[in-house]
Amino acid sequence: MTKQAVFLDSCVLRNYLKENHITEAEFAKKIGVAHSTVNRVLNGKRNPGGKFISGVLTEYRDLSFNEVFIFETDLPKGNKSA
Prior knowledge:
The chain is of the alpha+beta class.
């Protein structure tokens, strides 16, 4: 079974917030998550969930998924012969 994960490119989002004078708290409120969630995602302590991703893409239409998020899939390891 392959594992899939979505990660935040925190540098891109931090720069966006800074350039647009948006605080973490303002950002959190606009995307509909707790400020602590935004802080944890930005600091790499948790991966963004569906609500976070949806909120970013819905409320900040000038940001694209590929610009802000990193989607990784671990490919299944091939058959090993003994």
